């Protein structure tokens, strides 16, 4: 009887105090949330931001894109390139060990890249490495690549998310039991629930990481994430939902950390599909869209209007071009010239479950109305979106993460042979091709800057699609968390982080 | 047995004249539903603003003089949206129920009347359908094609076919035992005549009650499907979709969710009461007393 | 002995009567008025009811449905439900007015001092509890026995009510017992706390005749041995005659007559009681005569009666009867009657309709004189629930409903089928109408196989065979008017002219004694008797040759039953109809049938002209059935009753179906071999192992039939 | 009883077999395909084809079905194409979490719902009855997701008393585990309570009007005995059925509630599988969900039969 009462009381107090009780954990444990389930822990196959979070905690690349967006050594402590920009030699850091205790060797790098190149792997990074003619391990700590054509940004490619170096003898179990060289070791993964990671005691950067344990909780509901952050159940909300920013700011126990990125959303018009095959129509759409208003609607102002994937924070950004203010009258005129005096009706597809893109779609619908374009918004499940919409439909909303270099951010979309271009909006202008090819081999920053300035002007003039903004990457965290900096590539860098 | 005071027949008197003796729940139900039906029919013209008109300057406004129930994250008027959404939500319930009745009643009649292999086949098919949990069946149907509201209606309709078939069959079987059916067989009536002239009229009262409950379930299931993105599509102001879209803002702007939530509750309570009232009205045991 | 009409206190001061010093009544009900109320108004169920039951006395409370008899019983138990309430009156039990006691004290009396047994044993026992536990409950509650002590007492009680295997029955669930056993269990429950008063509410109505006889026997024995008083509520005058010392007759919630059973049933004083006694079909009655009947239907009251409640149906009614309520007139013996003309009518019997020229006497024309039989049943066999599943454990041989039955029905002949529930009698009727397909054997109707014709979709022949149902309410579609229900057969018969059909319907309604205007009424607007008339009219609409009457009068009150029986007889005479008359009531059959089949367990035990079947030699089952027929005082001496055991197992197997319950069972031969058929003169056949001569030695159950050749043939 | 159970099991197996074919065909008919899903945005046709070959998606449907069905019969539910893990452990884990939710929620619903229903029936027409009716109306009138949102708002955001999402394994300790269950359970209870209470009430009212209850009263049994021993046991039969079916429903995943509370049960697993177009996972999940649902229905019927002595004994005959 006593016992039963005791238990009852315990349960009651547990329920009432759980908010604070939740915080009782190992001192060095950081609880992070991501907003969507992870499909895989195999870096080569990763496609979503929440997966890259895991990739950067568990793995390393040969190089890494730093917080300043420049390339830095990672597993490779240094590298050389031939003058023709076609032979690249990387020297690996000595004594780096995988989580299973084996030392990293050059053969692992070769195997990793070969695997990415294999079509059956289905890695989205494959196109990046198509440029590789051959590769070989010169010795256990040296690996050399021969390129098909000169490429100045090859080292940056190893900072790409999928190009994480994996142990060549454990590739088959990467998806569920990943082994890397990163600051944290994999402990467990419960799909839909959480990933548990622990400190890698053999991590090659001395004194890092500071945390003992990282728990990545999967919490798709933004309200649940924020509530958990306020109750202390979470220490950090990665990619904080925009609508929660004010609330987190208002809470003295919480703080916001944000950074501009070159991650963008776009209004995609298929240049081969009527009526968007007419540049005047595309131009009219671009004219009618007030980018400032769209940034407000879709991002609640947490982003910056831009012309192309080159962010306004970047030195190459074309400051002389004007951001479109929304001119429905002008758009109407252009439409009339193109043969649509009464406008037209069109279906705009948006991927379901991506809130900003859905808001962008609805904003486009409203802003095009005064220009005489009737837009029907159709939400599509993401798998259907990938299969039937992307690259096929005439009019849809899409978006892309920041790339490590300006070249990788622009070339694939705007060059007529660019990998994304052919499958996105099929834009083709020889002038643009010349500009982009030139920029690839530019010998100086100034030359590159001048070329990219022209690229932006042409992108606005031709409007293969409308890129209204680049997004700020925002994290919400507890005031107890120290040493955290949001990364412009949206990586979750926890090496320096500690918690009270 | 020998009942000397014949009970006045329920259907033989005018509805209006019997108003005082109607079940209270029926009257309350009608009172609750009437404005919703008006909204469903004339929603757009009654709304103070177009349901999809955005206004960035006045987003997330609390309820006030300009916007009676506030605005959402696009600055759209929540009241107007709720009003216009009435049609979508009610149509979803009514159309899906109608569909399940349309498919279920004939199947149930045949299964009950024919019995044997045909009946067995129908019932086993229904068993298979019924072994899917309702929302799962809805999701499955919708997963085959891109979501749209009419597909949600079809999905919900299909989900409820087995229940309608089972009920119809059960009543039919019961009626088949009735002697007036035997009498019809004895005078040489055709199966069609017996089904449609003898059995069907007696099935309607329980079916009407069942249908009113089905409408409730259909509305809620429809809202649930819209909620998980498989029903009505934005910028439609279906209530379930509205509540779903309001989730991220529920703390800053609870009115976006509350307004359609209350509308939904009113509709469901209204129909429930209507069903209860109907049951009381049509139940032969309750002639007179309720 | 009775005085002139004048207002007198309603309750007779029986106790104060000096002429016959009697013990104070155990139960004395005075001025009890009960009404049921709902939103539509009130219905008076009992008005100023008074009666008394002395210690050791069993009083019958009789009346037809709606007379308020059960309501009064429930009021005594304080179990009025459904909006019923006692408006006024006293219920004195052992001198204490129960109505003045708090509810908890009344509850403490229930089951302890006052115990009850209800009509339907099937529903009175809780299906989820063992029988033993249910019997033990009041013992534990009222007598404070421990469950263990109670269990011992339960077995004693079960043994006392004649259950041979008390331990097994105590551990059984209600559905595992037969109806008779269930009713015994209920009686055992009632007896448990040794009550002073038993309330028996139609305790045998739901049971088969042979079971009923045994239960009545048991109750009579128990009341006698335990010196119990009882209130016996029943509609069955014969049963009341058997068990009650006094009887109170109710009509429309009003006591119309009370007195010693023998006197009331042999010399009823009130016109209603006269009619009730007269309308009862009797085996011994001259079946060439119509049954006397009471016209009209039972009245219902909403307030205090303003006139004699029976006046609208009373053939002796005068203007006075309709203008003022009647007072109870009592004499010193406790006899009372609520009719100012009672003395004047003392010698007047209920009017015989033939005498008043309302009905034609039946012509003595015989059916068998005509040509070939209309219906020929040859080795009919019907098995229900047989299953040939692919799953071995689902394969079932099925239940035999009808086992190898052969008989014929001549044109214009009425063949009765008598049997208890489960005897297969209804199945025979349905097979004859092609409503169920025989498992084996053939049914020829007018020389053609009806089943095959219907299967082929040919409905013409079928329309010549119709059915009148037991449940007059269920046999009419509640959503169709009477006219619409009768219109369809005419349409199907190809009668295109709507006006002509309307006339035909009016004619048919008139023929069955209903106003033609009834065509526009809905079934629920009619009384039970009227609905049964509509049923008959509808059956006639197809112009049939043959009608199966399946318990067609069983659900009707006695006064109405007589009406319908008369109508059926008339129709047969006028239209030359043949009937298959299915019933459990051998008295009813004897009144209408030319020939009788006695069925048991799906087989025919005895068959023959009614006059032969009612006289020895009897099949043992027929003999038991006949001996179980209750009789009124004055109908002649009661024969010794043959009481059958409760059926332990369902009939079936190779032997005689009746073997398990047969009081004259010879031995293993009865179980193992099908009985041989003895045939005597006039097509009288008996299927029994006992030699005919031995059977013929038995005394007649109705000796008056044996000598007086009251029956033709 | 045994024969009945056997028959029902055979039916169940047949239903599941038919369903497996259906599920297989329907999933095949889904737009989008797993190979392009794995290949990602703008993969070329060769890449997609290569993946398809690797996964065996190029084989005829009947062969694919055969492999799949044979695997299931061996207890092998296959591998998730997206998660690249065997499905069985993932599914079992999700099923276990759904089971926890189902058991806790139904325990609360059963106790509270039956209690309220009996109370309302006994006090029929009185204030208590109307209160119970009113509360139960509220429960069914407002959709579960609305309740969920309100609960998150009140307990998570304003009061900060309870975690509003996720799941804590029991290994984290009892308190975190229990506290994560509170809100989803309360939502489920609100959703299911009304039906149970109303059903119990109406069947209780029916039973209270039966002859055996009248007879129990005629035996002088106190009202508490009449209600609890005589009436309740019989009145509970339909309630038990509905409870068991609800159990199957929760076990099969309450998609909406699991979504709002980020509860990693069967519902979210299924939604995940559908969104990622992971056919083997979809098929396995649907099959298991349906099997759980069917089993719950079967259990309901068997329980009904077992509690009801009339059916328990009479089963062979029917």
Automatic annotation (TrEMBL), chain B:
Family matches, as InterPro entries: BP-dependent_transpt_permease, MetI-like, MetI-like_sf
Q: Where in the cell is it found?
A: Cell membrane
Q: Which Gene3D superfamilies match?
A: MetI-like (1.10.3720.10)
Q: Which UniProt keywords apply?
A: Cell membrane, Membrane, Transmembrane, Transmembrane helix, Transport
Ranges where the ABC transmembrane type-1 domain occurs = 86-275
Q: Which domain of life is it from?
A: Bacteria
**Stretches that traverse the bilayer:** 22-47, 90-113, 125-144, 215-233, 253-275
Question: Where is this chain primarily localised?
Answer: membrane
Which CDD domains does the entry link to? TM_PBP2
Topology versus the membrane, per the UniProt entry? Multi-pass membrane protein
Q: Which Pfam families match?
A: BPD_transp_1
Record family assignment: Belongs to the binding-protein-dependent transport system permease family.
| Name of protein | ABC transporter permease
Q: Give the taxonomic lineage as stored in the record.
A: Bacteria, Pseudomonadati, Pseudomonadota, Alphaproteobacteria, Rhodospirillales
From TrEMBL, chain C:
Region Disordered: list its residue ranges: 350-369
Subcellular location per UniProt equals:
Cell inner membrane
Q: Which PROSITE patterns match?
A: ABC_TRANSPORTER_1, ABC_TRANSPORTER_2
Keywords attached to this entry: ATP-binding, Cell membrane, Membrane, Nucleotide-binding, Transport
Task: Please tell me where this protein is predominantly located.
Answer: membrane
Q: Which residues form the ABC transporter domain?
A: 29-277, 375-626
Protein family according to the UniProt entry: Belongs to the ABC transporter superfamily.
Q: What is this protein called?
A: ABC transporter ATP-binding protein
What is the species listed in this Swiss-Prot or TrEMBL entry? Azospirillum endophyticum
From TrEMBL, chain D:
User: What organism does this protein naturally occur in?
Assistant: Azospirillum endophyticum
One Pfam family linked to the record: BPD_transp_1
Q: What lineage, starting at the top, does this entry show?
A: Bacteria, Pseudomonadati, Pseudomonadota, Alphaproteobacteria, Rhodospirillales
Instruction: Indicate the transmembrane segments per the record.
Output: 9-27, 99-122, 134-154, 174-194, 235-261, 281-307
The entry sums up its family as follows:
Belongs to the binding-protein-dependent transport system permease family.
Q: How does it sit in the membrane?
A: Multi-pass membrane protein
Keywords assigned: Cell membrane, Membrane, Transmembrane, Transmembrane helix, Transport
Domain of life assignment: Bacteria
Recorded hits in CDD domains, A to Z, give:
TM_PBP2
Q: Which Gene3D superfamilies match?
A: MetI-like
Q: Where in the cell is it found?
A: Cell membrane
Protein name in UniProt? ABC transporter permease
InterPro entries (alphabetical): BPD_transp_1_N, MetI-like, MetI-like_sf
Give all residue intervals belonging to the ABC transmembrane type-1 domain: 95-304
């Amino acid at each position: 009887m006593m016992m039963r009462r005791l238990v009852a009381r315990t349960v009651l107090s547990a329920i009432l105090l759980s908010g604070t009780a939740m915080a009782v954990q190992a001192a060095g444990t950081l609880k992070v949330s991501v907003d969507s389930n992870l499909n895989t822990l195999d870096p080569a196959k990763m496609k979503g931001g929440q997966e890259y979070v895991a990739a950067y905690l568990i793995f390393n690349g040969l190089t890494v894109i730093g917080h300043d967006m420049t390339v830095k050594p990672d597993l490779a402590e240094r590298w050389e390139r031939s003058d023709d920009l076609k032979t690249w030699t990387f020297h690996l850091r000595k004594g780096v060990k995988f989580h299973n205790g084996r030392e990293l060797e050059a053969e692992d790098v070769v195997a990793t890249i070969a695997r990415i190149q294999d079509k059956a792997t289905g890695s989205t990074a494959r196109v990046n490495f198509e440029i590789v003619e051959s590769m070989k391990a010169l010795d256990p700590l040296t690996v050399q690549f021969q390129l098909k054509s000169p490429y100045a940004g090859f080292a940056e490619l190893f900072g790409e998310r999928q190009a994480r170096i994996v142990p060549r003898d454990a590739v088959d179990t990467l998806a569920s039991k990943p082994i890397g060289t990163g600051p944290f070791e994999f402990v467990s993964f419960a799909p839909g629930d959480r990933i548990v990671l622990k400190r890698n005691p053999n991590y090659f950067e001395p004194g890092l990481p500071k945390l003992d344990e990282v728990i990545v909780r999967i919490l798709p509901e933004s309200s649940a994430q924020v509530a958990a952050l306020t109750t202390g159940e979470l220490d950090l909300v990665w990619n904080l939902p925009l609508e929660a920013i004010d609330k987190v700011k208002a809470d003295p126990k919480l703080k916001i950390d944000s950074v501009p990125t070159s991650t963008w959303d776009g209004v995609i018009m298929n240049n081969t599909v009527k009526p968007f095959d007419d540049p005047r129509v595309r131009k009219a759409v671009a004219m009618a869209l007030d980018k400032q208003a769209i940034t407000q609607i879709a991002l609640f102002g947490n982003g910056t209007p831009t012309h192309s994937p080159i962010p306004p924070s970047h030195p190459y950004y074309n400051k002389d071009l004007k951001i479109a203010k929304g001119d429905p009258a002008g758009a109407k005129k252009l439409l009339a010239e193109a043969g649509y005096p009464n406008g037209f009706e069109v279906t705009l597809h948006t991927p379901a479950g991506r809130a900003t893109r859905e808001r962008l779609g609805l904003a486009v619908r409203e802003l095009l109305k005064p220009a005489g374009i009737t837009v029907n918004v159709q939400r599509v499940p993401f798998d259907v979106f990938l299969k039937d919409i992307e690259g096929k439909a005439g009019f849809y909303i899409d978006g892309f993460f920041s790339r490590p270099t300006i070249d990788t951010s622009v070339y694939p979309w705007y060059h007529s042979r660019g990998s994304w271009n052919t499958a996105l909006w099929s834009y083709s202008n020889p002038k643009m091709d010349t500009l982009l090819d030139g920029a690839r081999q530019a010998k100086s920053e100034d030359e590159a800057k001048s070329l990219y300035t022209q690229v932006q002007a042409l992108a606005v003039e031709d409007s293969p699609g409308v890129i209204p903004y680049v997004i700020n990457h925002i994290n919400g965290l507890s005031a107890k968390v120290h040493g955290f900096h949001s990364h412009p590539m949206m990586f979750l860098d926890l090496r320096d982080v500690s918690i009270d | 047995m020998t009942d000397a005071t014949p009970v006045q027949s329920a259907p033989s008197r005018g509805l209006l004249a019997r108003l005082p003796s109607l079940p209270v729940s029926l009257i309350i139900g009608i009172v609750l539903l009437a404005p919703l039906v008006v909204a469903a029919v004339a929603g757009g013209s009654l709304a103070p603003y177009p349901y999809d008109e955005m206004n960035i300057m006045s987003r997330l406004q609390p309820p006030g003089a300009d916007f009676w129930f506030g605005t959402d994250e696009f600055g759209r008027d929540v009241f107007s949206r709720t009003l216009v959404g009435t049609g979508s939500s009610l149509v979803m319930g009514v159309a899906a129920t109608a569909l399940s009745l349309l498919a279920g009643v004939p199947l149930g009649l045949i299964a009950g009347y024919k019995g044997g292999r045909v009946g067995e086949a129908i019932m086993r098919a229904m068993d298979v359908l019924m072994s899917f949990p309702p929302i799962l069946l809805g999701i499955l149907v919708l997963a085959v094609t891109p979501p749209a509201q009419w597909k949600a209606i079809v999905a919900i309709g299909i989900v409820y076919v087995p229940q309608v078939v089972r009920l119809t069959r059960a009543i039919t079987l019961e009626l088949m035992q009735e002697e007036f059916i035997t009498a019809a067989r004895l005078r040489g009536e055709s199966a069609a005549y017996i089904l449609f002239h003898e059995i069907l009229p007696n099935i309607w009262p329980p079916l009407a009650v069942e249908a009113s409950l089905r409408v409730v379930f259909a509305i809620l299931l429809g809202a649930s499907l819209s909620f998980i993105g498989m029903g009505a599509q934005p910028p439609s102001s279906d209530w379930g979709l509205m509540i779903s879209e309001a989730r991220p803002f529920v703390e800053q702007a609870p009115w976006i969710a509350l307004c359609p939530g209350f509308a939904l509750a009113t509709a469901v309570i209204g129909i429930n009461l209507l069903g209860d009232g109907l049951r009381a009205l049509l139940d032969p045991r309750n002639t007179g007393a309720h | 002995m009775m005085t002139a009409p004048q207002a007198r206190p309603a309750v007779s001061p029986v106790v104060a009567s000096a002429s016959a010093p009697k013990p104070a009544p155990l139960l004395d009900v005075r001025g009890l008025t009960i009404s049921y109320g709902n939103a539509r108004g009130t219905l008076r169920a009992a008005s100023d009811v008074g009666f008394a039951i002395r210690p050791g006395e069993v009083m019958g409370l009789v009346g037809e449905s709606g007379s308020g008899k059960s309501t009064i019983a429930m009021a005594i138990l304080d179990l009025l439900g459904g909006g019923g309430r006692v408006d006024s009156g006293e219920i004195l039990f052992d001198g204490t007015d129960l109505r003045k006691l708090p509810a908890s004290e009344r509850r403490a009396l229930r089951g302890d001092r006052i115990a009850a047994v209800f009509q339907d044993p099937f529903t009175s026992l809780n299906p989820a509890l063992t029988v033993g536990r249910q019997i033990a409950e009041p013992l534990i509650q009222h007598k404070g026995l421990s469950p263990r002590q109670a269990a011992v007492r339960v077995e004693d009680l079960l043994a006392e009510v004649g259950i041979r295997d008390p331990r097994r029955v105590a551990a059984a669930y209600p559905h595992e017992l037969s109806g008779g056993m269930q009713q015994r269990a209920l009686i055992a429950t009632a007896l448990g706390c040794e009550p002073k008063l038993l309330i028996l509410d139609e305790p045998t109505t739901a049971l088969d005749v042979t079971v009923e006889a045994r239960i009545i026997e048991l109750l009579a024995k128990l009341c006698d041995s335990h010196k119990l008083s009882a209130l016996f509520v029943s509609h069955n005058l014969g049963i009341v005659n058997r068990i009650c010392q006094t009887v109170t007759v109710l009509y429309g919630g009003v006591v119309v007559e009370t007195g010693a059973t023998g006197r009331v049933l042999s010399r009823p004083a009130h016109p209603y009681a006269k009619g009730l006694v007269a309308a009862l079909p009797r085996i011994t009655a001259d079946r060439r005569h119509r049954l006397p009947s009471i016209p009209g239907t039972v009245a219902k009251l909403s307030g205090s009666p303003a006139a004699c409640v029976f006046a609208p149906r009373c053939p002796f009614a005068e203007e006075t009867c309709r203008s003022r309520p009647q007072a109870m007139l009592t004499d010193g013996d406790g006899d009372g009657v609520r009719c100012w003309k009672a003395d004047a009518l003392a010698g007047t019997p209920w009017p015989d309709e033939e005498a008043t020229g309302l009905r034609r006497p039946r012509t003595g024309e015989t059916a068998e004189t005509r040509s070939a039989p209309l219906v020929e049943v040859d080795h009919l066999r019907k098995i229900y629930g047989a299953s040939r599943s692919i799953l071995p454990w689902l394969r079932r041989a099925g239940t035999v409903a009808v086992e190898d039955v052969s008989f014929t029905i001549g044109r214009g002949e009425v063949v009765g089928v008598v049997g208890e529930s489960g005897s297969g009698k209804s199945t025979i009727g349905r097979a004859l109408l092609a409503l169920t397909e025989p498992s084996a054997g053939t049914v020829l109707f007018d020389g053609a196989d009806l089943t095959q014709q219907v299967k082929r979709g040919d409905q013409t022949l079928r329309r010549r065979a119709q059915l009148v149902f037991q449940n007059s309410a269920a046999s009419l579609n509640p959503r169709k008017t009477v006219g619409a229900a009768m219109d369809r057969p005419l349409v199907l018969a190809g009668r295109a002219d709507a006006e002509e059909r309307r006339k035909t319907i009016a004619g048919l309604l008139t023929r069955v004694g209903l106003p033609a205007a009834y065509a526009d009424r809905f079934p629920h607007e009619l009384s039970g008797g009227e609905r049964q008339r509509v049923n008959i009219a509808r059956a006639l609409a197809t112009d049939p040759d043959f009608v199966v009457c399946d318990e067609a009068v069983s659900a009707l009150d006695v006064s109405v039953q007589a009406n319908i029986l008369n109508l059926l007889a008339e129709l047969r005479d006028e239209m030359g109809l043949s009937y298959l008359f299915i019933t459990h009531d051998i008295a009813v059959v004897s009144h209408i049938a030319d020939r009788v089949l006695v069925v048991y367990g799906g087989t025919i035990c005895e068959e023959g002209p009614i006059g032969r079947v009612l006289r020895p030699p009897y099949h043992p089952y027929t003999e038991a059935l006949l001996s179980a027929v209750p009789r009124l005082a004055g109908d002649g001496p009661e024969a010794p009753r043959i009481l059958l055991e409760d059926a332990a197992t369902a009939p079936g197997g190779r032997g005689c179906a009746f073997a398990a319950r047969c009081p004259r069972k010879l031995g293993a031969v009865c179980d193992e071999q099908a009985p041989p058929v003895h045939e005597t003169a006039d097509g009288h056949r008996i299927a029994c192992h006992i030699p005919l001569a031995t059977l013929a030695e038995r005394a007649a159950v109705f000796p008056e039939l044996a000598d007086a050749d009251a029956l033709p043939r | 009883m045994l024969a009945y159970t056997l028959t029902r099991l055979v039916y169940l197996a047949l239903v599941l077999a038919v369903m497996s074919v259906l599920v297989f065909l329907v999933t095949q008919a889904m737009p989008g395909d797993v190979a392009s899903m794995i290949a990602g945005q703008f993969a070329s046709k060769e890449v997609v084809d290569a993946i398809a070959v690797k996964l065996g998606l190029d084989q005829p449907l009947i062969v694919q079905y055969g492999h799949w069905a044979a695997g299931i019969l061996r207890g092998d539910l296959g591998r998730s194409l997206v998660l690249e893990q065997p499905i069985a452990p993932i599914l079992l884990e999700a099923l276990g979490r759904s089971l926890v939710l189902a058991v806790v929620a139904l325990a609360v619903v059963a106790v509270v719902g039956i209690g309220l229903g009996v109370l309302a029936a006994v006090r029929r027409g009185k204030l208590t009855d109307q209160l119970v009716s009113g509360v139960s109306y509220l429960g069914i009138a407002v959709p579960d997701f609305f309740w969920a949102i309100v609960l998150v708002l009140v307990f998570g955001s304003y009061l900060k008393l309870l975690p509003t999402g996720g799941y804590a394994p029991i290994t984290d300790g009892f308190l975190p585990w229990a506290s994560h269950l509170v809100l989803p359970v309360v939502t489920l209870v609100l959703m299911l309570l009304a039906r149970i209470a109303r059903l119990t009430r109406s069947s209780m009212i029916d039973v209270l009007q039966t002859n055996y209850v009248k007879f129990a009263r005629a035996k002088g049994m106190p009202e508490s005995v009449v209600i609890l021993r005589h009436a309740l046991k019989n009145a509970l039969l339909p309630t038990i059925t509905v409870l068991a079916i609800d159990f199957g429903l929760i076990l099969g995943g309450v998609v909406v509630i699991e979504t709002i509370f980020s509860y990693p049960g069967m519902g979210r697993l299924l939604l995940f599988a559908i969104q990622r177009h992971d056919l083997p996972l979809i098929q396995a999940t649907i099959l298991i969900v349906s099997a759980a649902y069917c089993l719950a229905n079967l259990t309901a019927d068997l329980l009904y039969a077992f509690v009801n002595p009339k059916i328990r004994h009479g089963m062979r005959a029917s």
